[in-house]
C-alpha cells in the first residue's frame, strides 16, 4: 500500500551546521553542529519524516571554493549524522553562483523537482527548513510550509515541537444540489464553543453529544432540503463530519486507533471503533417508533454509515432499551466515548503492522 511521503527539505550551512563568517566550511575545525539538531531530527524521524538536504554552495569546484577542501568536512558531517541514526533520503548541492541564475539554485525548483513530479509528496506535512529568505521562497514555490531557523527565529527544538504537535483541526465545505454544509473540527481542544445548526433540532442535540463525549470541538452549519425530508441533510452531514475528522487525523500516526461502550438509564449501547482506514458499519438493535422529533429513527444508522465511510473507520453499534430518545442518545454518546481514546495522541508510533492506516 502506497502512502504519501512526509519530507523535510533542509538547508545545510546555518541550518544543520554553523556558518562561518567567510561562508565556507572548508576545514575540519570549522565544522560545528547547530545546537540540538540531532535530538530534534531524531524526534522528527520517529514521527515518520524523511530528510532531504538542499544546499547552495556558491562556486563549488572553482578556485574560490575548491571541491577538495569541501568534501572532507562534508563527509565527516554526514558520518556524524549517520552514526546517530540520522540518514538523508537525498543530498542535493547546487554549485552555481547567484549571477548565473541557474534553475537548479534555490529558490528555484531544480533540485527538488523530482519530489514534486512523483505525486507522492505529502504537501500538507512536508516543510522546507533553512536560515535564509531564499529557503522560505523555495517552500512557497513548492507549495509547502517553510520554517526559518536562527537566533532571532526558531531553534531546532522549537521546530520539532511545532511540527510534531501541530494542531489537528480541519474545515470541510460540502455543496450538493440538496445541501450546503460547513464543518469545523478540532481534535485536541474543547475551548471553542460547539455551534451546530442542521435545521433538525434533535439531530443537533445528538451531534452535541457526539462531540462532547468524543472530546473534540465540532461546528456544523447546514442548509438542506428539509422541505422534502431529513435524508440528504443527515447523510451529507455525516459525510462532511467524517471527512473533517479524517483530514484532522492526518496520517494517523500516534493515535490510539481503537475505542470501546454507554449506558443511560434503562438503555445501553455497546460501541466498538477501529480507525483502520477501512470503512464498515454494523448496527444491531431496533427502535419502537418511526420518528424522534423531526428525524426518522432509520436515519441514525444512515448517519453512522456515512460517518464510517468518510472517516474510513469500522464502527459497530449494538443498542437496546425501552425509551427511544435514550436509545438514540446512547448511540451518539457511545460513539463519542469510543472515539475519544481512538482519536487521542498516545505517542508517535503508527498503530499498525502494515505501517500505514
Write the layout of secondary structure elements.
Layout: E1 7-10, H1 37-46, E2 50-56, H2 67-83, E3 90-94, H3 113-117, E4 127-130, H4 133-142, E5 145-148, H5 156-164, E6 169-175, E7 179-186, E8 195-197, H6 201-214, E9 217-224, H7 231-249, E10 258-259, E11 263-264, E12 267-274, E13 280-284, E14 291-292, E15 295-296, H8 298-311, E16 314-320, H9 324-343
Parallel strand pairs: 1-2, 1-4, 2-3, 4-5, 8-9, 13-16
Antiparallel strand pairs: 6-7, 7-9, 10-12, 11-12, 12-16, 14-15
Helix pairs in contact: 1-5, 6-9, 7-8
At the fourth level of CATH, the homologous superfamily of the largest domain is: Imidazole glycerol phosphate dehydratase, domain 1
CATH structural fold name of the largest domain? Ribosomal Protein S5, domain 2
The portion of residues assigned to helices is 25-40%
CATH architecture title of the largest domain: 2-Layer Sandwich
- Using only C-alpha atoms, the radius of gyration works out to 26 Å
Q: Taking all residues together, what is the mean pLDDT?
A: 92
Helix/strand class:
alpha/beta
SSE arrangement, N to C:
EHEHEHEHEHEEEHEHEEEEEEHEH
Strand % is: 15-25%
- Count of DSSP H/I helices: 9
* DSSP E strands, number: 16
Main sheet properties: 5 strands, parallel
